[in-house]
Structure formats: structure tokens, C-alpha cells
Amino acid sequence: MEQPQYKRQEGATGVSLVAPSFLGLFDERWYDPAFWQDGASAVTRGGRGAAWFIRAGSDQLVLRHFCRGGIPGRFIRRHYLFTGEDHVRSFSEFRLLDQLFRRGFPVPEPVAAGYQKEKLGTYQAALIMRCIPGAIPLAECAQPGDHKTWQAAGQCVRRFHDASVFHADLNCMNVLVSDEIYLIDFDRGRMMPSSSDDRWKRANLSRFERSVHKCLGAVGTEPRDGLWQAFLTGYGARPQ
């Protein structure tokens, strides 16, 4: 496999991994939405309110700060325990995205990932990716004529599973529809060992099914079940 071309850079406030196409252009101030002034607009679909669309020259990008959800997020929203650079969450996601993107998988192109160490052994992290033009979440494709889209989504997820790619938060908001189906938000994602059985795949699909019921709760049982069966058909699973 082709060796990664991204570079590690140490800045005034932290450390970054930068894609080759942005070497010489990237500035660690890019992680601060205030740096972009009116050029940063909050992402309002999905997420935890910590992502922005930004524009660097002619490039439309997405900036995401790593934040905790649930009860822990109320107290330590952006702080993570630093246990070594190999375990920094933004770096792990950047490396996985870089590997998948270079292999031709439909994922956002990674631009830069950074972290900043703090007192008490913690760090904050951020990730910048190229924006997927015109993308909408699969959850917004909930009309009777959208069965082919859901079938394509099932085919997409099956492709990742067949390549042993584990997505830790597979849900209807992290599957995007554009010129093709994309998967986004690979925080805590990883490549599974070849010796693994299929339980993680089944757990992934069960998590996604729960998301379908949650996100499409207002659609109605019969239309929702039809979309879910279309997804399973695309995935290649036996209809339920």
C-alpha cells in the first residue's frame, strides 16, 4: 500500500498532521472558528454543536472540535486525558480517513488534525476535512421514492464492513447523500483484525436500525420499514 504523505508539524500552540495538498497553506489558527470571522458558519445538522463550515481560498472545508456527549460532556466537554500522541483522537481519525481516502472509499478528504496539550495531563483536539458538496443526511431521504438511495446506502455500508472498517457511531446522520453515498465521523473508528468474527458487523447494523427508528419516527411505521428493508437489500442481508 502507498505510504502516507501527510506531515507532522509542531506549531506555537500544538501539534498537527497536515495533508500534502495543504502543506505551506495550513495555519494552526484554522482550528479556531473565530479566526475565520464571518467565513465560519455553524453546522446545524447532527453533531454536538461543535462543527463549522469554513472556506480556505477556493476550498470549502469542515472544522470539527472533539467533544464528549451525554452526561460526561456536561462536565468535561472538550478535555481528554493525554496518554500519548498515538492515542490522540483527532490523529487516529485523520490516519484512518487518510488510509480510506487513498484506497478510494467514499469518506471526506482529511486536511489537518491537531491537538493542544493542557495542564493536568489533558488535551483538546480538532479535525479539518474537505466538505462534500451538496451532501444531505440519509435521514432527510424519507420519501417513498427514496428506496434506491437507501439501497445504495446499504451497499456502501457493506463495502466498509467487507473491508473490516468499524464505524463507532453508524447512524442516519453520519451517512451522507451526494453524488454517491458517503460515511462521515470516524471518531473511535478502526480497522478490525482479520481474525474477528461478524458480531461487530451485526452490532453496527443494530445500532443503525435504532437510529432509523429514532430519526424517522415521524414518517410512519410502514414507510420507515420499507426504507429499512431497502437498506438491508442493498447490504445483502435477509429481509426481516
SSE layout:
Layout: E1 7-10, E2 15-18, E3 40-42, E4 51-56, E5 59-65, E6 80-81, H1 89-102, E7 110-117, E8 122-130, E9 136-137, H2 147-162, E10 165-166, E11 175-177, E12 181-183, E13 190-191, H3 199-215, H4 221-235
Antiparallel strand pairs: 1-2, 2-7, 3-4, 4-5, 5-8, 6-8, 7-8, 9-11, 10-13, 11-12
Tell me about this structure.
With 240 residues, this protein is of the alpha+beta class. The chain has two domains: 7-130, Phosphorylase Kinase, domain 1, CATH 3.30.200; 136-235, Transferase(Phosphotransferase), domain 1 (Orthogonal Bundle). It has helices at residues 89-102, 147-162, 199-215, 221-235; strands at 7-10, 15-18, 40-42, 51-56, 59-65, 80-81, 110-117, 122-130, 136-137, 165-166, 175-177, 181-183, 190-191. Helix 2 crosses helix 4. The relative contact order is 0.13.
User: Any idea of the CATH topology of the largest domain?
Assistant: Phosphorylase Kinase, domain 1
Distance between the termini: 39 Å
What number of domains?
Answer: 2
Basic shape: globular
Mean pLDDT: 92
Question: Strand-residue fraction?
Answer: 15-25%
Radius of gyration: 18 Å
Question: Tell me, what is the CATH class of the largest domain?
Answer: Alpha Beta
How many helices? The count is 4
Count of distinct strands: 13
What series of H and E elements makes up the topology?
A: EEEEEEHEEEHEEEEHH
Q: What is the annotated CATH architecture of the largest domain?
A: 2-Layer Sandwich
